[in-house]
Structure formats: structure tokens, C-alpha cells
TrEMBL record:
PANTHER family: UNCHARACTERIZED PROTEIN YGJP, UTP PYROPHOSPHATASE
All residue ranges annotated as the YgjP-like metallopeptidase domain in the record: 42-241
Species, as recorded: Micavibrio aeruginosavorus (strain ARL-13)
CDD domains per record: M48_yhfN_like
Full protein name: YgjP-like metallopeptidase domain-containing protein
InterPro entries: UTP_pyrophosphatase-like, YgjP-like_metallopeptidase
Amino acid sequence: MVRTTSTKGGKNRDKDALAKAQQAVNSIHPCLRLTVSKRARRMALRLDPAARVVHLIVPHRASMERALDFARQNKLWVEKRLEDLPEPVPFVDGAVLPIMGHNVTLHIHYDPKLKMTDIELKPRTLIVKTNKEDVAPRIKRFLRQLASDAITEMAHEKAKQIDRNKKIQSITVRDTRSRWGSCSEDGKMSFSWRLIFAPSLAMDYVIAHEVAHLKVMDHSQRFWTQCEKLSDDFDFGYDWMQKNGHSLMRFGQDA
Ligand SMILES: [Zn+2]
């Protein structure tokens, strides 16, 4: 049970209780992560394909006993969902990465005598010269910057086609888990860096979608008409993201 108490040391006791609960959850399945949520109204299981874990969401007033029962009852579902995830493609020497529609082979040359890491994208190869034993985070940063540059350019290009005073305020490219892109009322956009692994026309559709939101916030017919107008190939892009979007999560994961 997670108790809430205002006495001194109560916080630590809560922490201990949480750690114990997490242990109990892990004994049901090692890839289950306990999340106690103030906003959640009911217990739920949520797959995180990038981290290859399943979050057990528990409302903060719910009993931990019931949460554990819930997890036990759904153990097969958890196993199945994790099994169905596409094979991860870690950033290791020889890995093939589809970068904006072109297959690029990763070549990592490790030399401890080097002063720094140097990354260069060629038409068919991504050449990494490094003194780091684990260069994956550096490669991720490089690709994230590449995604940011490409997305920013395309988004501004599309925004020019919209006759509206409201402009793009900012574009951030981040490690999003649940959405490929978003656009706020005041024109702040964010995109997943993993869109760099989608075919160009699919990335184009996601950008067109968010730019169309500058004009129409909802998903009405008027919105879709606008989105189609801004897309290079709406049908292809939309279908590709629907069918294959989840597979983008496998890049840059550890095997
Ligand atoms: Zn939308």
C-alpha cells in the first residue's frame, strides 16, 4: 500500500513503498514499469515501443494489491505486445538506416587516439570516426539535428503557402513517444526526430498536417482539405504513417 502521510519521513516511506511495489511489478514481468498517476482515473497498460517497456498506470489512490492483480491478469497481453515489436536497429557498425528514403550504411571507425568524434553523411554511408566506445548517443544527436534542419526548412516552405497572419512560432524536434508531430494554438510545433527514418513523402505529410493546423485547429473536413493541398502525396504519406509509423521507433534502440 502506498500511504500518504504528513509526518516527518513520510516521503521516504512512500518512496520505499513505491520501490517495493516496482519490485513486485517486475516479478510479474521484467519489462513492466509502475507509474503512479494523479491524473489517471483507471488502471491501464501502455506500451512504449521506443523503450520496449509497458507502463502500468495506477491512479494514485488505487490499491497496489489491485494493481498487481490487474498486471497478473494481463501478463499474456504484455508478453504478446512486446513480442510483436519490430526488431531493434541499434546504432552499431554495419547497421542500415533508411535516412529520408535512402538506405545508408553506418560505418564506425573507433580509434582511441582520435581527439574527437567526426560524423559525415554521404549518399550511401554514414561515416563515424570516434574515440568514444559508445558513440550511439552522438549519432543520435547528429541525426536529430539532421531531422531538425530538414523539418524546419520544409515546414517554413509549407507555411508560406498559407494565407494567414498566424505563423510558425517555433519548431522543436524531440524524442516524442506518442505523437509524430503537434501544433499549439500559438503556432509552436514539435516533431519526432525519428521522422528522419521515414520516406520523404511520409515526413512531408506529417509536416503538412501540422502546418495545416495553423489554419484549422480541429480535424474537420476543412482541415483535411488544407492538409491534402499542402502534402506532396497525401494518400501515400497518410497510409505509410498509419501502417508503418510505429516501426520508426526501432531505430537507435539497443539490441
Ligand atoms: Zn492533427
